[in-house]
Amino acid sequence: AGGPSVSSPWSGPTARTYVTRHPALTLTEIHFHPDDADSGQSYDPNDFEFLELKNTSGGILDLAGYRLSGEVAYNFRSNPSLKLAPHARIVLAANTNAFAARYGKSVAVAGEFAGHLSDTAGRLRIPFTTGILVEKLGFAPLRRRVYRNRGLVVA
Questions:
Q1: CA angle 94, 97, 103 (to 5 degrees)
Q2: What is the per-residue pLDDT across 18-59, written as a single tens digit (0 to 9) for each?
Q3: CA nearest neighbour of 45 among 119, 144, 138
Q4: Exposed e or buried b for every residue in 112-150, given b needs 16+ CB within 10 A?
């Protein structure tokens, strides 16, 4: 009813949503399966896991509507004043103290995510509060021997 005949090569009408521009918030680095803590540090290797996100737009990005789910979880609503400058990057860490001990305090850290990243493979999603999926991806080591303790750089 309302569609083309059965013998027609054309399908009936369908509704789809298409994204015509790149999302403003992009996951740029997934650091999983990190090296062990330096001697004298009491951190678990998983404490050094982190994710880096980037505002790829030319405007200020209000992160209050975003969240992260999958292997780890973080809701940016927990930090409602967080805004990301154009082309700026921000980190979500497994443990902010461990991150600062290894990488210093010059990197902007939004907070700590819940859970931990698998050492072999996993999935992450960044949905917006409206239900639109901003980014969905899987991750795995490129070559186990070479990247075993280095994680994976996505972009």
A1: 90
A2: 656 667 888 888 888 888 888 888 999 999 999 999 999 999
A3: 119
A4: bbebbbebeebebbbbeeeeeebbeeebebeeeeeeeee
Close Cβ partners of 40 (under 8 Å, ≥ 6 residues apart): none
For residue 76, with 0-12 CB atoms within 10 Å meaning exposed, 13-18 middle and 19 or more buried, which class applies? buried
The answer to whether the predicted template modeling score (pTM) of the entire model surpasses 0.85 is: no
- 126, amino acid identity: I
Sequence-distant (6+) residues with CB within 8 A of 81 are none
